[in-house]
Design brief:
single chain, 767 residues, alpha+beta, Chloramphenicol Acetyltransferase, 4 domains, eight-stranded mixed sheet, 47% helix, fatty acid metabolism
Length: 767
Amino acid sequence: MAEAHQAVAFQFTVTPDGIDLQLCHEALRQIYLSGLHSWKKRFIRFKNGVMTGVYPGSPGGFMVVVVSYMSYNKYHQLDPSLGDIIQTLPAIDVKVFIQKIVGGVLVGTGLWVTIIMIMRNVLKGLLSWHGWMRARHGSVSWSTRVWMVLVKVFSGRKPMLYSFQNSLPRLPVPSVKDTCRRYLESVRPLMDDERYERMKGLAKDFEKNLGPRLQWYLKLKSWWASNYVSDWWEEYIYLRGRGPIMVNSNYYAMDFLYVFPTSIQAARAGNAIHAIMLYRRKLDRAQIKPLMLLHTIPMCSAQYEHMFNSSRVPGVDTDTLQHMNESKHITVFHKGRFFKVWMFYDGRLLLPREIEQQMERILADKSEPLPGEEKLAALTAGERTPWAKARETFFSRGKNKQALDAIEKAAFCVTLDDTEQRYDENNPVKSLDSYAKSLLHGKCYDRWFDKSFNLIVFKNGTMGLNAEHSWADAPIIGHLWEHVLAMDPVKLGYSEEGHCHGEPHPNLPGPQRLQWDIPAECQEVIHSSLKVAESLADDVDSHIIPFNDFGKGLIKKCRTSPDAFIQIALQLAHYRDKGKFCLTYEASMTRLFREGRTETVRSCTMETCAFVRSMIRDETTEERLKLLKQAADKHQNMYRLAMTGQGIDRHLFCLYVVSKYLGEDSAFLKEVLSEPWRLSTSQTPLQQLELFDLVKHPEYVSSGGGFGPVADDGYGVSYIIVGENLINFHISSKHSSPETDSHRFGTNIRQAMMDILDLFQLDKKTK
């Protein structure tokens, strides 16, 4: 075969005349181009590190400062070195000239660095002010305007992805008194008087006795570490969990809902993989613009670092995150076989049609899986400890280690799924529920759940992502996914036949089958993990609602925050569904601070409960609207507090971790952290609006994503606001719970949204 021949760099034969050495020039050329690519990448990484390290300064600014300083000295006939530099130069005429040049450069450099540090610290101080969040929506005060101008002045020009990392403030530690007060306020609607008084007593005892001691250690950590929460959150919430990460931790992102660019599986994979690799190139070069609120306020970009070339590695007691600086291949799973596919040839990234060519070769491969290979990935779907022990026993040497390294060190994983998933207008409910479950867990052995993310391309060309959660939160993978969906049908496009544009490569080496030698003992562990995973997957009750009765456009006419409107509707729907209120989790981000991740908004409040009861009882519309406004204002205030580091749950979590390190038991903290979140919610934000023309093409945007239920008897709800007229809800629960039914809850959500909108009587106002 041609590709097999080209894989050999040289060959030799022994003849009577000696050794005949034959070099393969093509292979040597590929080695040269590969090395050149690696050195270019290292240089770019070094250059970006320097540019980020001196930001908001720049090489141009350095030249301006140094030249200006030296010109000033020359004009005033000053010696910038004060006669102390280069005393060892020979006594020749150029000594004074060189002395002034060197002294001017050194002092000018010091002045430049001083200016940078001043700008950076001033910017950090400016970004620590959050008064702009308290302004009414649509209005900007003069103080906020002046503040925004100052932020722009001190932010420098043309920032790269990581430029603001050293200028972001640290996450503040709230006082124990404030956190306890806000906690008691959040649980008041969920407790009767007797239980509330008991909890109030526990909180006061904690606030007076153990709390201040734990707080001292937490303050010490906040001064020393970049973020007092993130490392403990990553370790104890994610990496130390010993249960399956499939369903319980991993989440998914969906394709377009109503657009089908091509039905050719290999072609869709070709464009998507190429778009992802282009994104990785921009990420490596730090060319992705940092996300800026109001086009002014930077957000932390630290989570992007582990997006590619990363994998979660199982351990007996705790997992670890493995990240490679560079990876030139991906791994592809198809019908029980694993393939390694190189993404570069001739010193360049493969083009979409060439990637399609590689996918076609994999789809055409009729070889059977090796013993134990087909369901190997079930190890990543089951309990973590058996997987860790199996990894150490069966995958630490030989061909198994080489094959596992190929997966874990790949840029990312791809599954060419042999099922068809798509939104079907004739059967919308069943088709979308099947689609969601396939992305969330599939067959439990056809996704490598440990990988930072898996691209899943179905047989009919529909696609999606499954992402591991420990390395980053959903908005980070959402940023990548928006880039892919924006490039795929519009910028890259397809031919009339549905193939990627371009031509196949005549000499492109084919994919490599990974080789395994999996003994019977390991196959038993695989089978055991698969049983655990299948039991978990079968219990998931998924339901998706494309809510198109109205959207953000009409909600804004009600002069209400869309997020607050939806959260209040969820409370009304839950009360109608279960006849009671519950502890509710809404994810908020803390990326206004360095290495910030998430905080909890406890959106079941006294004000929201009062409004819900008014909808159940026979209250007047005026009274209901008054209570709705109070509930929405309360929700918005709580969201602001969470975003600005004044939340409840991350502070209490860290206090609990400190108490465990000190060997102290706190009845208050233990009870707080054992309360189940029976309603867990999250909004998937659309972050790059400039990539999509939602007016002309509202269908060209992701339909969002979802996650599994957090509590056995609760609901998980993710929603995305698409344009002005569509909101997609992703609902999950467990079949095994008699209290939950995702489809019933979906019906209640739809009715709650309509009932709240009816209060505003927009139809009558329009008439």
